[in-house]
Amino acid sequence: MTTPAKTTQAETTPSQTVGPFYGYALPYEAGPRVAPAWRPDAITIRGRVLDGAGEPVPDALLEIWQADENGEIPRRPGGIVREGHDFSGFGRCGTDAAGGFWFTTVKPGAVGAGAPYIALLVFARGLLKPVATRIYFPEDEAAHAADPLLAEVPADRRGTLVAEREGDRAYRFDVRLQGEGETVFLAF
């Protein structure tokens, strides 16, 4: 007597987090330098990535994408090598042990009818996909009122998208992944 063949049905399994491995291959030395610091219009954006308990995330990776000072999106090839004078509109920085990151760039001009902003992606442990947000600038408050994206954000949460001024050419923008003061993240 023969026994019937046993059929096996594949089971769906949940996604798993692997890593993070960001510090091994993705950061590069010039990554945080979107524009050279010697440019008269160069600005610095510094901040920290914090978890829900307010603790630093020492192994996150941040990418910024932005327009130049005239509101034009760079469309030329390249980006990793800036040769000391170029602006690519792209930067990448891993966090340090205190969750800190920094970028040297230029303040973007407005693209279309919106307020000037820098797009920010955050890759971190526990996230299966990066989270996206924006960095707006405090001196553009009048333009914030007409920005279509900011208009969709509840008024009491908009402040999580606006950097703090720290001097003439410096800003602070902390990313809170969850909890009190959680940064507004965008769904696509």
Automatic annotation (TrEMBL):
Keywords: Dioxygenase, Oxidoreductase. It is an enzyme of class 1 (oxidoreductase). This is Protocatechuate 3,4-dioxygenase subunit alpha. Belongs to the intradiol ring-cleavage dioxygenase family. Gene3D superfamilies: Aromatic compound dioxygenase. It comes from Actinomadura montaniterrae. Pfam families: Dioxygenase_C. It comes from the Bacteria. The lineage of its organism: Bacteria, Bacillati, Actinomycetota, Actinomycetes, Streptosporangiales. SUPFAM superfamilies: Aromatic compound dioxygenase. One of its GO terms (molecular function) is protocatechuate 3,4-dioxygenase activity. The keyword NAD does not apply. Its EC number is 1.13.11.3. NCBIfam families: protocat_alph. PANTHER family: DIOXYGENASE, PUTATIVE (AFU_ORTHOLOGUE AFUA_2G02910)-RELATED, PROTOCATECHUATE 3,4-DIOXYGENASE ALPHA CHAIN. Residues 42-179 form the Intradiol ring-cleavage dioxygenases domain.
